[in-house]
Design goal:
By secondary structure, this protein is α/β, with parallel strands linked by helices. It has 18 helices and twelve strands. Helices cover 43% and strands 12% of the residues. It starts with a helix and ends with a strand.
Length: 434
């Protein structure tokens, strides 16, 4: 039987046909002895493999983090910011344009060349433009960044620059900024690489003086140096569990070239630096007028206006290194919120404090109302504290404490009206049955 089997002509192991004039057989080296495949089956197999690879490639494009991302126009972005942030018109306009350009750049990068563009422009590579927000505390810097991330549905992370130190010192490495974004994305590397990172308190890592120091400034200039490559764009090695790096651990490799960095800080004292620069006058034949000698800026000039006139050289004098300033090309200033703006903050935004407390007490069958003069008193108290919109929540918590303490015990529907006397402490808030 073995001899007769050996004498049989070889056939294709897939279709069972033997070789002919238009069909060749190819021997497949494998664990199956004597297995062959004909030329027809080989061609069909190649077609199947090519089709599957094409389908996989299309699925990969569809699952790309940018495939479902809608890039709104600057006007659409600003309209969404208007729902949450009161005032700051110039800052919202600058941010809207910067964010639109950033994600349009990413769309162009991932989707390939645009045939509608002229050939000389289709080859142009677009650089990333990170943003620096200057403004006092409570003016809305963090809220602007949070609103942008929610609107675009991209991962968002906030970090405090004061916790960062140079590698090898007690504190956090700058790579831990990226770890927070990775965790916010649901541990998705691709989504991480199109996210937004907000670095707060950037002014707190300014170097101690304008001149280079002999001693190491590990939480100031050293951190600025460490941030340079991440802001510009690099493939960073990030410890998956956070903490310090050590040679034997595995790293997450995160490309930061498509991550938008928004940095913010109060920059207390920057207004004096701007005044000093604007007050400079040249003595000599070109400036003989007596009024040209001496300070040219009035002491009473608005701090917000001075911030809006800030130049890169002012930030260098403040303590930021020129290399870091160059990686934050979009610069905008937020104005301090006055009494009128704070009254609007209390009641107009989608998540306004008055709306939040009304909802809290509505769940306890209490109808909460604020008189106009009570809102003005609250705004004036926040202005005197100098903490901007952040101070409003602390004032509201103190004001509503007794009402929220006793409301759950009451049965039936009640009403509480907050007046200016209640805000000033001249009267107690009262719950009245309806």
């Amino acid at each position: 039987m073995a001899k007769s089997r050996d004498k049989q002509p070889p056939v294709c192991g897939f279709c069972g046909e033997s070789a002919g004039e238009r069909k060749d057989l190819f021997f497949i080296p494998s664990m199956y002895e004597g297995l062959s495949i004909c030329s027809d089956c080989l061609c069909k197999g190649h077609e199947i493999v090519s089709e599957v690879r094409t389908q996989k490639g299309n699925k990969k494009d569809e699952s790309s983090p940018l495939s479902g991302l809608h890039v709104p126009s600057p006007k659409e972005i600003k309209a969404e910011l208007d729902r949450f942030v009161i005032g700051q018109e110039q800052a919202k306009k600058v941010l809207s344009v910067a964010v639109h350009n950033h994600y349009s750049r990413l769309k162009a990068k991932f989707n390939g060349k645009d045939e509608a563009l002229p050939p000389e422009l289709a080859e142009v590579e677009l650089d990333k433009s990170n943003v620096l927000l200057l403004g006092p505390t409570g003016s809305g810097k963090t809220l602007l960044a949070q609103t942008l991330a929610k609107m675009l549905d991209v991962p968002f992370a906030i970090t405090d620059a004061t916790t960062l130190t140079e590698a090898g010192y007690v504190g956090e490495d700058v790579e831990n900024i990226l770890l927070r974004l990775y965790q916010a994305s649901g541990n998705d590397i691709e989504r991480t690489q199109i996210g937004i990172i907000y670095i707060d308190e950037l002014d707190k890592i300014s170097r101690k003086g304008e001149n280079a120091s002999i001693t190491r400034d590990v939480s100031g200039e050293g951190v600025q140096q460490a941030l340079l490559k991440i802001l510009e764009g690099t493939v960073a090695n990030v410890p998956p569990q956070g903490g310090r790096k050590h040679p034997n651990q595995e790293f997450l490799h995160i490309d930061t070239s498509n991550i938008l960095f928004i940095c913010g800080g109060a920059f207390v004292g920057l207004d004096k630096v701007v005044k000093r620069r604007r007050g400079r006058r040249v003595l000599g034949f070109g400036d003989n007028a007596p009024e040209a000698i001496g300070p040219a800026v009035e002491e009473s000039e608005d701090t917000g206006k001075l911030f809006s006139e800030c130049e890169p050289e002012d930030l260098v004098h403040f303590g930021l290194i020129p290399e870091l300033i160059g990686r934050l090309p979009v610069l905008t200033a937020l104005q301090p919120l006055d009494k009128e703006a704070l009254v609007r903050v209390l009641q107009e935004p989608k998540n306004a404090l008055v709306k939040q407390y009304r909802r809290l007490l509505a769940m306890e069958n209490v109808d909460l109302q604020f008189s106009p003069d009570a809102l003005e008193e609250l705004a004036q108290a926040a202005v005197e504290r100098g903490t901007g919109a952040r101070g409003l929540r602390a004032l509201m918590e103190k004001l509503m404490l007794d009402v929220m303490f006793s409301a759950p015990e009451r049965k039936g529907k009640s009403r509480c009206i907050i007046t200016a006397e209640v805000v000033r402490g001249d009267a107690e808030p009262k719950l009245e049955r309806v």
